[in-house]
Sequence to fold (481 residues):
Amino acid sequence: MTTDKEQQELRRDKIGANEQTPREIVAELDKFIVGQDEAKKSVAIALRNRWRSRQLTGSMKDDIIPKNILMIGSTGVGKTEIARRLAKLVKAPFIKVEATKFTEVGYVGRDVESIVRDLAETAVRMVRAQRMDEVKEKAEELAEERILDVFVPEPKKSQNPLGRLFGGDDDEDEEDDKEQKKVEPKYQAGREWVRKRLKKGELEEELIEINVEESTRPMVSMFSGSSLEGMGDNLQDMIGSLMPKRHRKRKVTVAAARKIFAQEEAAKLIDMDEVAEDAVYVAERSGIVFLDEIDKVAVRGNTGGADVSREGVQRDILPIVEGSTVVTKYGPVKTDHILFIAAGAFHTAKPSDLIPELQGRFPIRVELKSLRKEDFEKILTEPQNALIKQYRALLATENVELTFADSAISRIAQLACDVNDEAEDIGARRLHTLLEKLMEDISFNAPDMKDEERKVVIDDKYVDDKLAEIVKSSDLSQFIL
Ligand SMILES: Nc1ncnc2c1ncn2[C@@H]1O[C@H](COP(=O)(O)OP(=O)(O)OP(=O)(O)O)[C@@H](O)[C@H]1O
Ligand SMILES: [Mg+2]
Fold:
């Protein structure tokens, strides 16, 4: 027998659950990120461990806390990209924050607890969307009823012109009653007739005037962005709920009205208290925080000055990573089981420059490798959103058919390597600058091209023509590429 609490947990554990195996997660990441297998593997394992601990019960479930990951790799090798793709992949609440955005408690700026508040917010949005989905059918039915009300409004006594004209003092009610009896069947018949046409979809393009609820949020948004951010949120909600819901008339098609009404009705069907409770649970158990640019708050040696504040940020981050309770407007959120993935280039500072307590909270270290020529070739062509594919798609809108010969790809990759070695290693970002320069003329001329010019083949010669000079001169390449 399972208790109520266990039942509830079972239900909540299904929210935001990722069922993919590590292999499947890696395969998904492979579609966008070239190489970096080690990093992909460890995030995949971490995600799967989430799933595993969900299957457990009792104290074991509580005792197993996630192993946080620290990704180390020079700039432009795909750290943030992994986070971005992971965010799309996981169904759990996920947020990505930059460590540099935070200031020590007491100073002007965002305090680190806002990370947890944001995570709770994400979780609420997620749970709410899911709940909305569950009540979708019911909401759509109700929406149709409301559209019917617009087409065939309910007859009102006072609106009855006959009643107003002939209504005496004494027998007004009686007259009205009689009228009502005459109107009622007509009203019902009219409604049925419109209902049928609505169901057949014959009225979708019809324009109707409806009342829409106007949200009051934007009016009080001036509270956000201050250091009293959390409080600002609460104030906003308070003021929002105190103010009467404003309605605005809008002319829309029936199809659009269906969507608007369905949203409003779904919102009414959902128990927001339950959503908040579930969301807090999901944020606590499945939440993932990606802490980017963590190296920027690490300090080398003891230099004092501005660095004191950076160390302060680390000290503030510590309790959150370690496990503490942060009060959010949806309730207190315990951070013990939140998975943290930190990333940094660690060009100047080393992981060992982080305060020791924090180092210890990131037991899994993965290194992302510097990208070489073969990687660049793949990055240019293979990912679903590969740069070459992007340029092809962009120029196709101008009826220009762009083709890159293999020789060109190889050449661009080589040049990227050369410039990275010569100047600064900015990883795959170098490809962006190189390609932008390479494509400059074509991009500019595309709209004016003659028909016979609209098939453009780019080969190694073209690449050399456009870029070799710049690459050779380190002075030039420093500025242009
Ligand atoms: N391994 C890779 N596969 C595919 N694309 C990549 C890879 N590495 C980097 N890129 C591309 O290069 C650009 C920069 O990568 P990303 O933002 O991940 O850098 P980063 O490692 O976070 O660097 P930084 O330390 O400067 O933040 C992105 O547009 C990304 O698509
Ligand atoms: Mg980054």
